[in-house]
């Protein structure tokens, strides 16, 4: 049996192990170790490469970016910045068609610029936005679907943990990935807003329990307005954090790691000033930061080990030759790759997909002349769609579990997210066809 055949078998075994419930890190380690052992017929070499990878895999100052951005996101989450952002967006947009849905998208867009994790956005806005939307006459399932659909913005709008992980796996600049994510992220947010308004106008009963009563309530809204100084006070912390972190990063004043440190310190000041961080919460934040960071770093070590096994098997070069020999151009390759990612998104979580596919696909894309930053945005967009598609749909399940409403089923939330999936597919197509949407700021 050739090493190439062994490589393909090992990838199939890896996917099978993950589907059977094995942790992705352990599956990567096991498959890579066995692969190197079998291909080279040398167990000592497999142990030696594991030892080298364990050290060199994360022995870089750049990897401090991960715990620092995780810490910043958790501190922001406990300081109720998400709730305040939604309240201001609600005040400004409530007279608009589907105003609270648009407010949820707007708040998620701003919140994503300081958290970088979709699950955090889904959990925060389920508690904040869904009850408020339901109280104003929106269907509970549509409200939950709006939160789940717009929460994926956290994976694309920088700083994003998925962009960081992709940058590490593909060995491209993390700062460059953040810049590449700006325009597609704004396109996605704008598409969501246009879709919500359009769906409300064309299919009001899909959105509202009683469209006539809701329309009359919006036209006759005489509720007391939030004073401007209160709105300003609620927005200042998050706006300053965004300017501090992303402004310093994009102007070149901070490296990504320094931006993470400054952001974490700024988030700590916000949490302390709001008196939302006692000893117990601080301990929980630090513990969660350690758990998440160690998990991600362990995954990156495992992915590096897996990538070395693939190189020994000659898999990336063989697949690249196969793709080029089949007559597919760069666009055809991107199409097939996106379809594969979408299918994998139905059965695997986003991090697992990146860890399995990027070490294989990134060298192929680079060999075909595709910009790796552009390729990364396509990858993350396709992976994001998996957060909303059954049967896995982790964002949908997060919203459902956080909402804990027996009258709103998982199936209803999945149905309500379908328009969001449609918008994401359109944006994915536009970004694939027009690379400048991702490379405009590079």
TrEMBL record:
<feature type="transmembrane region" description="Helical">
    <location>
        <begin position="334"/>
        <end position="360"/>
    </location>
</feature>
<feature type="transmembrane region" description="Helical">
    <location>
        <begin position="372"/>
        <end position="393"/>
    </location>
</feature>
<keyword id="KW-0813">Transport</keyword>
<feature type="transmembrane region" description="Helical">
    <location>
        <begin position="102"/>
        <end position="130"/>
    </location>
</feature>
<comment type="subunit">
    <text>The complex comprises the extracytoplasmic solute receptor protein and the two transmembrane proteins.</text>
</comment>
<dbReference type="GO" id="GO:0022857">
    <property type="term" value="F:transmembrane transporter activity"/>
</dbReference>
<feature type="transmembrane region" description="Helical">
    <location>
        <begin position="289"/>
        <end position="307"/>
    </location>
</feature>
<feature type="transmembrane region" description="Helical">
    <location>
        <begin position="142"/>
        <end position="169"/>
    </location>
</feature>
<comment type="similarity">
    <text>Belongs to the TRAP transporter large permease family.</text>
</comment>
<keyword id="KW-0997">Cell inner membrane</keyword>
<protein>
    <recommendedName>
        <fullName>TRAP transporter large permease protein</fullName>
    </recommendedName>
</protein>
<feature type="transmembrane region" description="Helical">
    <location>
        <begin position="6"/>
        <end position="39"/>
    </location>
</feature>
<keyword id="KW-1133">Transmembrane helix</keyword>
<feature type="transmembrane region" description="Helical">
    <location>
        <begin position="181"/>
        <end position="208"/>
    </location>
</feature>
<feature type="transmembrane region" description="Helical">
    <location>
        <begin position="229"/>
        <end position="253"/>
    </location>
</feature>
<feature type="transmembrane region" description="Helical">
    <location>
        <begin position="413"/>
        <end position="434"/>
    </location>
</feature>
<comment type="function">
    <text>Part of the tripartite ATP-independent periplasmic (TRAP) transport system.</text>
</comment>
<dbReference type="Pfam" id="PF06808">
    <property type="entry name" value="DctM"/>
</dbReference>
<feature type="domain" description="TRAP C4-dicarboxylate transport system permease DctM subunit">
    <location>
        <begin position="12"/>
        <end position="436"/>
    </location>
</feature>
<dbReference type="InterPro" id="IPR004681">
    <property type="entry name" value="TRAP_DctM"/>
</dbReference>
<keyword id="KW-0472">Membrane</keyword>
<keyword id="KW-0812">Transmembrane</keyword>
<dbReference type="InterPro" id="IPR010656">
    <property type="entry name" value="DctM"/>
</dbReference>
<feature type="transmembrane region" description="Helical">
    <location>
        <begin position="60"/>
        <end position="82"/>
    </location>
</feature>
<feature type="transmembrane region" description="Helical">
    <location>
        <begin position="259"/>
        <end position="277"/>
    </location>
</feature>
<keyword id="KW-1003">Cell membrane</keyword>
<dbReference type="GO" id="GO:0005886">
    <property type="term" value="C:plasma membrane"/>
</dbReference>
């Amino acid at each position: 049996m050739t090493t190439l055949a062994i490589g393909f078998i090992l990838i199939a075994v890896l996917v099978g192990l993950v589907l059977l419930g094995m942790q992705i890190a352990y599956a990567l380690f096991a498959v890579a170790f066995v692969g190197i052992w079998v291909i080279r017929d040398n167990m000592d070499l497999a142990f030696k490469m594991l030892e080298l990878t364990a050290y060199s895999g994360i022995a870089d100052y750049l990897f401090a970016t991960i715990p620092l951005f995780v810490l910043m996101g958790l501190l922001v989450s406990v300081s109720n910045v998400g709730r305040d952002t939604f309240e201001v967006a609600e005040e400004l947009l409530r007279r608009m068609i589907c105003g609270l849905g648009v407010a949820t998208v707007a708040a998620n867009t701003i919140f994503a610029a300081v958290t970088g994790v979709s699950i955090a956005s889904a959990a925060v806005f389920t508690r904040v936005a869904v009850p408020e939307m339901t109280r104003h006459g929106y269907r509970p399932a549509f409200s939950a679907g709006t939160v789940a659909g717009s929460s994926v913005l956290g994976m694309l709008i920088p700083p994003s943990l998925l962009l960081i992980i992709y940058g590490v796996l593909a060995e491209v600049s993390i700062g460059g990935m953040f810049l590449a994510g700006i325009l597609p992220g704004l396109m996605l947010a704008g598409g969501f807003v246009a879709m919500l308004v359009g769906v409300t106008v064309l299919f009001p009963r899909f959105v509202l329990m009683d469209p006539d009563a809701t329309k009359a309530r919006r036209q006759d809204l005489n509720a007391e307005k939030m004073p401007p100084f209160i709105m300003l006070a609620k927005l200042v912390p998050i706006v300053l954090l965004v300017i501090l972190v992303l402004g310093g990063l994009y102007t070149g004043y901070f490296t990504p790691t320094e931006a993470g440190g400054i952001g974490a310190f700024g988030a700590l000041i916000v949490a302390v000033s709001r008196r939302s961080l006692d000893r117990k919460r601080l301990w929980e934040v630090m513990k969660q930061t350690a758990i998440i960071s160690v998990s991600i770093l362990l995954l990156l070590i495992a992915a590096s080990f897996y990538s070395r096994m693939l190189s020994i098997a000659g898999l990336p070069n063989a697949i690249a030759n196969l793709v080029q020999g089949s007559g597919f151009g760069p666009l055809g390759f991107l199409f097939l790759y996106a379809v594969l990612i979408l299918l994998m998104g139905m059965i695997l979580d986003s991090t697992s997909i990146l860890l399995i596919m990027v070490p294989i696909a990134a060298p192929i894309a680079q060999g075909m002349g595709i910009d790796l930053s552009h390729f990364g945005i396509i990858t993350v967009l396709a992976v994001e769609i998996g957060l909303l598609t059954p049967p896995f749909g982790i964002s949908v399940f997060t919203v459902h579990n956080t909402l804990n409403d027996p009258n709103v089923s998982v199936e209803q939330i999945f149905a309500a997210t379908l328009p969001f999936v449609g918008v994401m597919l359109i944006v994915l197509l536009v970004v694939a066809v027009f690379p400048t949407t991702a490379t405009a700021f590079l």
